[in-house]
Amino acid sequence: MALFVFDIDAEGRAQAGALDQEAARGHWRWVHFDLAAPGTVARVGQLVSEEAAEVLVQPETRPRYLGLGESLILILRGANFNPGQQADDMVSLRLWAGRDLVVTLRHRPIFAVRELQADLEAGHCLPGGPGELVAELTERLVDRIEQVSLKLDDQVDALEEAILDPDCPPDVLAPLPELRRASIRLLRYLRPQSETLRRLEARPPDGLALPHDEIRESANRAQRALEELDAVHQRLGALADHQYAQKADQLSRNGYGLSVVAAIFLPLGFVTGLFGMNVGGLPFTDTAWGFAIVCFGMAGSVILVLLALRLLRLI
Question: What is the number of H-type helices and E-type strands within the chain?
């Protein structure tokens, strides 16, 4: 079963259709499938060519564009706004478009598709035919990617401002690892997606009228989002370097302090070890002032060590 079927007339008005019935004359059809539903693979194979069906139902995909004469295959990624999931865990939209039929498939719900479905049910028109549907879906996917990119950029701005505050908490950069993982996941798909839209703009299929201006604008916006994410990724790397430098500096200061303490107590340890030997001939064992003499001598050695460190500018 399809998730929904729309039969769309020449003026772009949509009405619900049935998969087991042909579209009315003068109408073209949009069919949307859930790949996880039983029978979907077989049903898709009945609607498109064997070559196209094989590409559409692959378990793992990356953004790509294939021109097949008068039809096309377009595989795109969109931001994941499903409840309880991360936006950077991008969802896949597989699309085949011909003169009078558009077939789309998804594994997980895609909000761009849901929004367009609701708009068509509310009376939104697609007078440009299947090509306009392709452009509309592409634009809405890019819209949501831009939202995620801008949100990530704002989070990085907040981190950069926070670390400049002298009173910032020590865990201010705690979100940094997750933000870096998010940027990497987004770049993994957005880079090939930008290239895919550029190829679609440059080499549209024969016989399928695509709104060139809309496709070009979506390609430009995808490229801009890619450049913003590249900048965000580099800024996150700079923040990570700053964090590592802070930790290294803190370790260095702690090690230096321990070294100074060790230098001060080194002669004291030597003296106490020497006078702690249980052998004959130790000085001051027969005088009541022996303990005081040793203590004053140890205090003098500490003063001498401190003066030496000071002269050497080590403290």
Answer: 7, 7
